[in-house]
Amino acid sequence: MFHTIIIVGNVGRDPEMRYTPSGQAVTSFSVATSRNYKSQGQTVKETIWFRVTCWGRQAEVASNYVKKGQKVLVEGRLVADASGNPRTYTRSDGTIGTSFEITASNLQLLSSRAESEGGYNGGGYGQSTGSMGNTYGGSSDMGSGGIYEDREPSDLGDDDNIPF
User: Fold this and answer.
1) Strands 42-55 and 96-109
2) Which of 106, 89, 124, 86 is nearest to 7 (CA)?
3) What pLDDT sits at residue 36?
4) Which residue has the higher pLDDT, 33 or 142?
5) Phi, psi (rounded to 5 degrees) for 114
6) Which 3 state secondary structure label does DSSP give 154?
7) Burial class (CB in 10 A: 0-12, 13-18, 19+), 150
8) How do the domains of the chain map onto residue ranges?
9) Residue 160 — φ and ψ, nearest 5°?
10) Residues in contact with 5: Cβ distance below 8 Å, sequence separation at least 6, in sequence order
11) Residue 158: which pLDDT band, with cuts at 50, 70 and 90?
12) Structural element, H or E, at residue 65
């Protein structure tokens, strides 16, 4: 069996990178997805938060280039508790919360460079670069066509040539 999830949303906090005891990089950040719909004549805004985890080279790239407020597309697999449900936790006020967690296999930055440098202004969807933004799959060389090879940022030259 196989499952995958794709979300598009805004990064809720700057990524936090750490290393496992074996030296593997791990980066975590949150992404908020939202939708508007009508219920009994009232417009309802629904927001769902996801905790995203990236591993290895993709974790290093996410740590360096993902910023709070950016629009991202994340593809990966859901991580569940032992019973197959979202993870639950107790908030500081004593209420129970759930956590939807994704282990990323593909990460695309959809915000333009200007939006990234200026921060998120909260207004609508900005112009994305390319047809779907820039991609970093992390584990393999992805070739051309808007999807960039796995190379060290220092190999790319000055900042204007960085594909993120």
Assistant:
1) parallel
2) 106
3) 93
4) 33
5) -65, -40
6) helix
7) middle
8) 5-161
9) -65, -20
10) 75, 76, 77, 78, 102
11) very low
12) helix 56-65
**CA-to-CA separations, 13 to 49, 58, 66, in angstroms, rounded:** 11, 17, 9
The H or E element spanning position 30 is strand 25-39
- Quick check: pTM over 0.70? no
The pLDDT score that the predictor gives to residue 97 is 82
pLDDT > 60? residue 82: yes
Q: CA 50 → CA 6, 16, 57, 104, 130, distances in Å?
A: 11, 15, 21, 11, 25
Are the C-beta atoms of residues 31 and 72 closer than 8 Å to each other? yes
Tell me what pLDDT residue 83 has: 84
Q: Tell me: domain 5-161, CATH 2.40.50.140, correct?
A: yes
19-33 in b/e form (b: 16+ CB < 10 A) is: eeeeeebbbbbbbee
Contact criterion met (CB below 8 Å) for 41 and 30 = no
Is residue 125's pLDDT more than 70?
no
pLDDT at 98 over 60: yes
